[in-house]
Write a structure and sequence with these properties.
By secondary structure, the chain is of the alpha/beta class. It contains 24 helices and 32 strands. The chain is about 35% helix and about 20% strand. The structure holds 2'-deoxycytidine-5'-monophosphate.
Length: about 675
């Protein structure tokens, strides 16, 4: 904790280049969970404790500040920290305890001060202020403390008026090590026996450290879960080397597993069944991970190597804190098959709505993911396709920022990750370690000013998070608008979009031509339009350029893509999810490079750019559309329309916020004028 990087040195935005392998060995920061609890045990212990290797993140710093504020002395040790604690030293804090972004600090400190005969106010940042504290408030009230917060869920700031406590028997309704720990910290100062029963066992650091400090604590395991019993105890000081944090190691282990040619050794890592679930999950997926004993109890070295992954089913109970889900989701995104993380609704009340943010991250990188109820469903790309470079706003969530960095390293092209400063929460040296494993040229820190000067970056990455995208776009004065024009064949999209682009001085992209180009390549190379896998691989590898002329791998196909043969197969090919994934990623890159533009297609306003500034959906009567497409048989048009509108992947439909124009009996000028009037 003594050499924490200056927050100003952790950039808010980072560009990460794909194609770099991860090789070498490292130690990750001290385990965050153990660090919080060791500080609190040391504050309660009568005498001088010595703690080495504490997490250097902001969260643990909040706990350290909190124990200082209530009277523990924290002094530099050589090495580590010396904590002078003891209940008689502790006193009412002069002001509110600022827990920042750290839910662990708030919940555990609340448990400690619940037994102290004074008032403590605990406050947090915006994100923490949205996290429910009723889970600790209810049992602490039953023990005799007065705990109040905002609203029915007892949101922060919270006020704890402590005093004489009595033991209770409690089964947390949701598996939570934080709730268990808050009750145990209160229980070690309470009359009688305090019992916490966990149907799903969570990390055991609190009971292990309390036992190490001499507390009267007993753990019983059974088929029904784990039960921890604690009695009032006088604690003695502890001397502790904090091992590496498995949740931070998870990013490098997943990185080494998904990036071809990688091999990473993570040394001196804490190991326990409650913290190693992610290794089990990865092993089931086919990851080659060796766990090497170090001779020290509960401390291992891990060696992870690039592996072919297959999908699995992950039960929340395997990874009770859910901390490793964003990293595992990246592994699932490149695996073959569909991975389901069940019962992970709790992710919604982490530092951010991590369920929605993980889905948005995977989608930004071109993978298919969705939240279905409390499930996270990830359709892996498999070995024939790759993630594509993206822009993603982690909105300050440290685990999302680090998971996105790993996805970016595994992706083709360059990615931009904004909201990166959140890594200060838990892993301030993350970029130093990235540089150690991948080399300094794998990424570039970008300062905040440079971020805002890069117009469409944030927009395209957050394509599935309209609100966030809209905010990003508003921050960029002078950037070009992004106009989406969708509709069926013959509705007038090409003519109208050309005219709109010309009148506004914007570039235009005909995405239909991209699907046609892939269809042409499939016919040319004898790829069966029904062979989904081969088509996906073709779309991911072929070089399609759509401008005044259309080329495929350098061959001019401008006229050839309008042939009856292409008309016949293009809708089938466009219904293929892997083809769509590859082309949507390119369409987003096109808009990023052109800083906006007019983009026409079938799913532009709904899927490709849901945050577009203006969405137009053109229609016309079937007779009129057949007349306009004189070179295409009415039956073929009708069949294409039907396929385009009924396919599962991104079917043709108007976005709810699109302007719908029937062009049947209107002139081009008239339609264009109407569109320009909305600009
Ligand atoms: O616009 P067009 O007729 O040239 O498009 C050719 C085919 O491509 C059309 O049948 C549907 C498909 N397409 C699509 O699925 N998504 C787009 N964004 C654009 C076209």
């Amino acid at each position: 904790m003594t050499d924490v990087p200056d927050p100003a040195m952790v950039p808010s935005t980072v560009r990460v280049h794909g194609g770099y392998t991860l090789t070498g060995s490292l130690e990750v920061p001290g385990d965050k969970s153990i660090s919080h609890r060791a500080l609190l045990v040391a504050a309660l212990a009568e005498g001088v404790s010595t703690l080495r290797g504490l997490s250097d993140g902001d969260d643990v710093r909040r706990t350290r500040n909190a124990i200082e504020a209530i009277g523990a002395a924290v002094e530099p040790g050589h090495p580590g920290l010396r904590i002078v604690g003891g209940r008689d030293r502790l006193h009412e804090a002069a002001g509110a305890l600022d827990c920042g972004n750290s839910g662990t600090t708030m919940r555990l400190v609340a448990g400690v001060v619940a037994a102290m005969p004074w008032k403590t106010v605990l406050v947090g940042d915006d994100s923490l202020s949205r996290r429910p504290m009723d889970r600790i408030a209810v049992p602490l009230r039953m023990m005799g403390a007065t705990v109040s917060g905002q609203g029915t869920r007892c949101l922060p700031p919270i006020e704890v008026i402590g005093g004489a406590l009595r033991g209770i028997t409690w089964t947390p309704p949701i598996a939570s090590a934080q709730v268990k720990s808050a009750i145990l910290f209160a229980g070690v100062c309470a009359d009688g026996e305090t019992v916490v029963h966990e149907p799903v066992p969570t990390r055991t650091h609190t009971e292990v450290l309390l036992a190490r400090a001499g507390a009267d604590v007993v753990v019983e395991g059974s088929a029904q879960g784990r039960t921890v019993r604690i009695h009032r105890s006088r604690l003695r000081p502890i001397d502790l080397d904090v091992p590496g944090d498995p949740s931070q190691a998870a990013f490098w282990v997943v990185g080494a597993t998904v990036i071809a040619g990688s091999e990473v050794r993570v040394a001196r890592l804490h190991s326990s069944p409650e913290r190693s679930g992610f290794l089990e999950v990865l092993s089931r997926m086919g990851a080659r991970i060796e766990v090497l004993r170090t001779g020290e109890a509960d401390i291992v070295d891990l060696v992870a190597r690039w592996s072919r992954l297959r999908a699995t089913r992950v039960e929340a109970a395997e990874i009770p804190s859910l901390d490793e889900v964003p990293a595992l989701a990246v592994a699932a995104a490149v695996a073959e098959g569909t991975t389901i993380f069940s019962d992970v609704g709790e992710l919604r009340v982490k530092e951010s709505d991590r369920l929605a943010a993980t889905v948005a991250m995977l989608q930004a990188f071109g993978a298919r993911a969705q939240a279905v109820g409390d499930q996270l469903v990830v359709e892996g790309l498999g070995p024939r396709a790759a993630l594509s470079g993206a822009c993603f706003d982690s909105a300050g969530d440290h685990r999302l920022a680090m998971a996105a960095t790993i996805a970016a390293l595994a992706a083709q092209g360059t990615s931009t990750i904004t909201g990166f400063g959140g890594v200060m929460t838990s892993y301030p040296g993350f970029l130093d370690d990235l540089s150690r494993l991948a080399g300094a040229s794998a990424f570039e820190p970008v300062d905040h000013g440079a971020t805002t000067a890069d117009p469409v970056d944030a927009e395209i990455g957050a394509a599935d998070n309209r609100a966030r995208s809209a905010r990003q776009r508003e921050r960029q004065p002078g950037r070009a608008p992004l106009i989406a024009i969708d509709g069926p064949a013959g509705a007038g999209k090409s003519t109208v979009s050309k005219a709109v682009a010309q009148r506004l001085g914007l570039q235009r992209l005909d995405t239909g031509a991209m699907y046609r180009a892939v269809a042409w390549a499939a016919l040319e190379r004898g790829v069966d339009p029904a062979d989904a896998e081969a088509l996906g691989a073709l779309a991911a590898s072929v070089d399609v350029v759509v401008g005044a002329r259309v080329t495929v791998d350098g061959v001019d196909v401008t006229e050839a893509i309008r042939s009856p043969e292409v008309n016949e197969v293009v809708s089938t090919i466009a219904a293929n999810p892997a083809v769509r994934r590859a082309l949507v990623a390119r369409q987003r890159r096109w808009a990023a490079q052109h800083h906006g533009g007019v983009v026409e297609g079938r799913d532009i306003g709904t899927v490709v750019f849901p945050e577009a500034d203006l969405k137009v959906f053109l229609t016309a009567s079937p007779q009129e559309r057949a007349r306009r497409r004189g070179d295409e048989a009415p039956a073929t048009i009708a069949r294409r329309d039907h396929l385009d509108a009924t396919r599962a992947a991104s079917p043709l439909r108007a976005a709810p916020d699109a302007h719908i124009i029937d062009t049947t009996s209107r002139t081009v000028e008239d339609v264009v004028d109407e569109i320009l009037s909305w600009c």
